[in-house]
C-alpha cells in the first residue's frame, strides 16, 4: 500500500522558515516524480513545487519561487520542502503527492498533509 | 492556464445525473485533464486522467469527456457516497493548475 506521511508543519510568524518532510513507503520511490500541493482551509488546491526522480528537474509555482526549495533523498525515500520568508497567504495544508507521467502531471496518491499556519 | 469550474454548487438527489463543467483559458495540450473527488476531512482522490481514462477502482458511473478548452465530468447516477467536491486539473502546461471546484450536494 502506498503511504505518504508528512511532518514539519506548525505555527510560524511572517518572515519565518519551516522545513516540511514526507516519508514514502509501499512503492519504488525513485521511480516517481513528486510534488507538493497545498490547500488553504476551506479553499481549493494549488500546486506548489515538484521534483523529478533524480532531482535533475525542479519547478515552482510563481507564488513561492525564490522562497521555497524542494529536495528529495531517494535512499531515505523522503521529500522535503524548505520554506523561507513565509507569508500569511502561505497558510495551508501541504500535501506530498506522487506524480504520474511526470512530477507536474497528475497525482494518484496524496498524503494527509501537514498544516502550516503563518500568523503574527 | 486558468480553469473555471461550473456550477459552483450542484444540488441533486441520489440517482440523478450530474454534469460538471471545466473550462480552460487556453487549449489544453493533449487533453491532459484530470478530475479529483474530495470528501470532507479527506484528501483528493484521482478519478479521471487524460480527460476520459478512469483511474483504478473508479466505478463506471464516472465518465470524463471533452477536448481543447471544454471538459466535462459526468456521474450517471449519483450514489450517496458521491456527494463531495470535485476538482479538475490541467497538466498539459506547467505549472499544473486546478479549477476552483464544484460541490455536489444532496437536494
Characterization of the model:
The complex is a heterodimer of chains A (120) and B (107). Chain A has strands spanning 3-7, 10-12, 18-25, 34-39, 45-51, 58-60, 68-73, 78-83, 92-100, 106-110, 114-118. Chain A is globular. In chain A, strand 9 and strand 10 form a beta hairpin. Chain A has no helices and eleven strands. Chain A is mainly beta and 120 residues long. In chain B, strand 4 (33-38) and strand 5 (45-49) form a beta hairpin. Classes of the chains: A mainly beta (120), B mainly beta (107).
In short:
Chain A is mainly β and 120 residues long.
Key phrases:
heterodimer, A: 120 residues, mainly beta, seven-stranded mixed sheet, four-stranded antiparallel sheet, B: 107 residues, 11 strands, globular
SSE inventory with pairings:
The complex is a heterodimer of chains A (120) and B (107).
Chain A: E1 3-7, E2 10-12, E3 18-25, E4 34-39, E5 45-51, E6 58-60, E7 68-73, E8 78-83, E9 92-100, E10 106-110, E11 114-118
Chain B: E1 3-6, E2 9-12, E3 18-24, E4 33-38, E5 45-49, E6 53-54, E7 62-67, E8 70-75, E9 85-90, E10 97-98, E11 102-106
Parallel strand pairs in B: 2-11
Antiparallel strand pairs in B: 1-3, 3-8, 4-5, 4-9, 5-6, 7-8, 9-10, 9-11
Number of helices of chain B: 0
**In percent terms, what proportion of residues of chain A is strand?**
over 45%
Number of helices of chain A: 0
Number of distinct beta strands of chain A: 11
CA radius of gyration of chain A: 13 Å
Helix/sheet category of chain A:
mainly beta
Radius of gyration of chain B (CA) equals 13 Å
Q: Return residue spans of chain A where pLDDT drops below 50 for at least 5 consecutive residues.
A: none
Overall mean pLDDT of chain A stands at 97
What is the succession of H and E elements of chain B? EEEEEEEEEEE
The percentage of residues in β strands of chain B lies in over 45%
In helices, the fraction of residues of chain A equals under 10%
**Oligomer designation:** heterodimer
Largest sheet of chain B: 7 strands, mixed
Q: Which regions of chain B are unreliable across 5 or more consecutive residues at pLDDT < 50? A: none
- Gap between N and C termini of chain A: 40 Å
Pair of chains with the largest interface and how many residues each contributes: A-B, 20 and 19 residues
- The total beta strand count of chain B reads 11
